[in-house]
């Protein structure tokens, strides 16, 4: 069977699934802010995010029409910081790698990502798509992806 894989911009109809994925225990463990997020706080965050594409962009990945994961890009200085979450029931199938492989070519700017030490699957994914370890601080691995750095001048 042919598997279709598509990355599309997130919208308000994704609110519930994004909150479920965000409050999943493994996602919270991987996050810098591990607390459970309320529906109210999540809705405010999503609304603000969707209205600020110059600061934050969100995508949802669909495999054969089913939502299987999300990627986020946050503007940080002259770069975009990427983060990603795979739906709990869709983990272990290479979804994160597919999402990042589709997402990263959309950017011209430098990219970065932070992965907590011990998140072996995410380390593997980040390094496989070309992120390079820049530094390690307080249990966090800081990755960079220079992205066409030699085109200037
Ligand atoms: C981490 C996460 C994104 C991984 O996504 P995924 O697409 O399901 O990743 P996979 O399970 O396919 O694993 C990716 C790679 O890591 C490897 N891997 C996974 N768990 C591993 C482990 N415990 N030890 C060694 N290798 C492991 C897989 O074999 C695979 O390797 P490959 O690319 O060589 O085939 C997903 O589990 C998730 O969403 N977790 C919660 C949120 C999170 O951690 N987000 C990232 C924050 S930086």
Task: Please provide a written account of the structure.
The chain has 153 residues and is α+β, with helices and mostly antiparallel strands. It has one domain (5-145): Gcn5-related N-acetyltransferase (GNAT) (Aminopeptidase, 3-Layer(aba) Sandwich), CATH 3.40.630.30. It is built from 5 helices and 7 strands; from the N terminus they run E-H-H-H-E-E-E-H-E-H-E-E. It has helices at residues 15-23, 25-30, 39-50, 95-103, 120-128; strands spanning 5-9, 56-63, 66-76, 79-86, 111-116, 132-137, 140-145. The chain has a 7-stranded mixed beta sheet with strand order 1-2-3-4-5-7-6, sandwiched between helices. A hairpin with a 2-residue loop joins strand 3 (66-76) and strand 4 (79-86). The mean pLDDT is 95. The structure holds coenzyme A (COA). Coenzyme A binds at residues 26-27, 30, 83-86, 91-97, 115, 119-122, 124-125, 128.
């Amino acid at each position: 069977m042919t598997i279709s894989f598509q990355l599309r911009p997130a919208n308000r109809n994704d609110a519930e699934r994004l909150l479920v994925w965000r409050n999943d225990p493994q996602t919270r463990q991987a996050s810098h802010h591990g607390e459970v997020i309320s529906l109210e706080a999540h809705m405010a965050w999503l609304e603000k995010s969707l209205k600020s594409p110059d600061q934050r962009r969100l995508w949802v990945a669909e495999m054969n029409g089913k939502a299987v994961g999300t990627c986020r890009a946050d503007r940080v200085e002259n770069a975009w910081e990427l983060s990603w979450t795979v739906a709990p029931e869709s983990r272990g199938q290479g979804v994160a790698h597919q999402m990042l492989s589709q997402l990263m070519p959309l950017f011209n700017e430098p990219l970065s990502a932070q992965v907590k030490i011990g998140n072996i699957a995410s380390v593997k994914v980040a390094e496989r798509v070309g992120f390079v370890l820049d530094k390690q601080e307080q249990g966090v691995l800081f990755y960079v992806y220079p992205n066409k750095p030699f085109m200037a001048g």
